Recover the amino acids of this structure.
């Protein structure tokens, strides 16, 4: 795999699958060779749209395709455990959309599968692969703002979403926390690691999913993170990291920023801007490039998005759901296949399109 193109399979045909595939086909060292849906019709339409040679009407057919090196799983997260597990057991490497799974138990099962089979597995946390976010983390790690004291971040969509929408459906892992809150939580843990304590409050829908959630995470160092997510109002999607010697402010779209500003005590503010050569700020190419780099290097995990970090985020999300009283069918031990069977239509998955703007 060091010289040939990395051959991709796309599992699901929704909006996030289309966005990722559109970026993937522009990479010279990537080749999309197959796509799968639960039914042949959406798979065929997706294949024709992107010039993909093979279209499958079942996930199993894609998983068994020996010409595929790595599968991008883009179903709703209620089906991640089943879809990614199927591919791992068939010997495929996997890039799985976030949130990684419904809960920690499922995440640990996938990590265990990947490690037993010696397969590469990574959560598609594109924020962690973003060059400007990586620059921000490097500055924080190098002590540019001293010891981190607070992190603030928010992500809300305007809505309203009707009761029939997947974001309101408990069987599909609906609610603000898993779809949107995963970004603020992941941002805080990127900089501070796993918190020692988690508290939260939420407003729940009649269906029992969270319409908006406020979270307070704390660390033994004394650091705090104040985080918010919502599907009832569009927020500024901003973030701020304050340390003992300065502050970093990230304007709208903190998870794929155009710029951020470093404020250091006694100095003029410094602005760091995205390199135009890195592509549009909505590009998902950086996570694809990281997957292909790791595969060519023979790695089974990415140092940018390690599995232990993904599991730590899932532990925090589980703890928050426990605090706010959100339960999903998959939490009760329902099999991954049974939960996956609730996925509607053409496997539409991923964060709604407004999240990419």
């Amino acid at each position: 795999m060091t010289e040939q193109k990395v051959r991709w399979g796309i599992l699901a045909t929704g909006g996030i699958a289309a966005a990722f595939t559109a970026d993937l086909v522009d990479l010279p060292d990537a080749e999309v060779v197959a796509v799968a849906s639960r039914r042949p019709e959406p798979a065929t339409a997706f294949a024709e749209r992107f010039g993909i040679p093979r279209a499958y009407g079942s996930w199993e057919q894609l998983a068994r395709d020996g010409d595929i090196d790595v599968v991008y799983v883009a179903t709703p997260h209620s089906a991640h455990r089943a879809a990614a597990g199927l591919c791992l057991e068939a010997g495929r490497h996997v890039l799985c959309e976030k949130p990684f799974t419904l809960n920690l138990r499922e995440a640990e099962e996938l990590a265990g599968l990947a490690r037993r089979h010696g397969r590469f597995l990574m959560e598609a946390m594109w924020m962690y692969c973003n060059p400007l976010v990586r620059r921000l983390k490097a500055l924080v790690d190098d002590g540019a703002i001293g010891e981190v004291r607070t992190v603030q971040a928010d992500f809300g969509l305007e809505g309203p979403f009707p009761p029939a929408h997947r974001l309101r459906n408990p069987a599909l892992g609906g609610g603000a926390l898993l779809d949107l809150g995963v970004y603020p939580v992941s941002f805080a843990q990127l900089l501070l690691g796993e918190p020692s304590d988690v508290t939260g409050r939420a407003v729940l829908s009649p269906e029992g999913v969270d319409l908006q959630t406020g979270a307070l995470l704390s660390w033994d160092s004394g650091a705090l993170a104040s985080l918010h997510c919502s599907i009832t109002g569009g927020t500024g999607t901003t973030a701020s990291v304050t340390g003992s010697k300065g502050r970093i402010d990230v304007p709208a779209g903190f998870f794929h920023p155009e710029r951020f500003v470093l404020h250091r005590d006694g100095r003029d503010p410094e602005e760091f801007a995205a390199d135009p050569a890195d592509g549009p700020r909505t590009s998902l190419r950086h996570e694809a490039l990281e997957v292909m780099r790791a595969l060519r290097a023979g790695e089974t995990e990415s140092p940018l998005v390690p599995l232990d970090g993904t599991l730590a985020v899932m532990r925090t999300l589980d703890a928050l759901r426990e605090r706010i009283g959100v339960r999903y069918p998959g939490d009760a031990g329902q099999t991954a296949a049974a939960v996956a069977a609730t996925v509607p239509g053409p496997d539409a998955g991923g964060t709604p399109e407004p999240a990419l703007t």
